[in-house]
């Protein structure tokens, strides 16, 4: 049995989609959902999927080894960031080398880095007049959005598209590909 932990800070629609994808699988278990945000929509979704939620604050995340310790005690094989907005500290990156992945809502290396998350990304893409955007799934290192790229998929951005339109197209790609890519990575481990 392979065990996944998901980290999310917001709505958690990707987290829910991943939970649904693996819900009836005997060989993969979404074991824990971590969040830094007590108001996050992901909490309700985790309850619906009956997956335990671990809350943590900045101090615990950046100044203790508690989070990697919980993940190791729980036998987590892959850490999946899904709309998680904090920079991952070295202590956690080092505990899960090549076993922590993120999804970014653009075609990295464009539109990545500090402050480039969620809606800000789609606004920047539209403001720059891009004709395409997409998703990037990548390994996580100590820098925002800089780990090795595992998979990308693109979508068209047309002149009349608003940031919300782009967000919808990108979410469609995320839902179609993130669980499948996670599955492939687990199979290779
Ligand atoms: C997703 O589009 C994800 O790619 C993005 O936040 C959204 C979360 O949506 N992540 C980042 O911007 C990370 N830099 P969700 O909470 O509904 O899954």
Walkthrough of the structure:
By secondary structure, the chain is of the alpha/beta class. The chain has one domain (2-188): Formyl transferase, N-terminal domain (Rossmann fold, 3-Layer(aba) Sandwich), CATH 3.40.50.170. 39% of the residues lie in helices and 22% in strands. The chain is built from seven helices and seven strands, in the order βαβαβααβαβαββα. It has helices at residues 13-22, 42-48, 58-63, 66-73, 90-95, 118-127, 163-188, and strands spanning 2-7, 28-35, 53-55, 78-81, 100-104, 132-139, 149-156. The chain has a seven-stranded mixed sheet with strand order 3-2-1-4-5-6-7. α5 links the parallel β4 and β5. It is globular, with a radius of gyration of 16 Å. 35% of the residues are buried. The structure holds glycinamide ribonucleotide (GAR).
How would you summarize the topology of this molecule?
Blueprint: E1 2-7, H1 13-22, E2 28-35, H2 42-48, E3 53-55, H3 58-63, H4 66-73, E4 78-81, H5 90-95, E5 100-104, H6 118-127, E6 132-139, E7 149-156, H7 163-188
Parallel strand pairs: 1-2, 1-4, 2-3, 4-5
Antiparallel strand pairs: 5-6, 6-7
Helix pairs in contact: 1-7, 6-7
The structure holds glycinamide ribonucleotide.
Glycinamide ribonucleotide is lined by residues 8, 10-14, 82-83, 103-105, 117-118, 121, 170, 174.
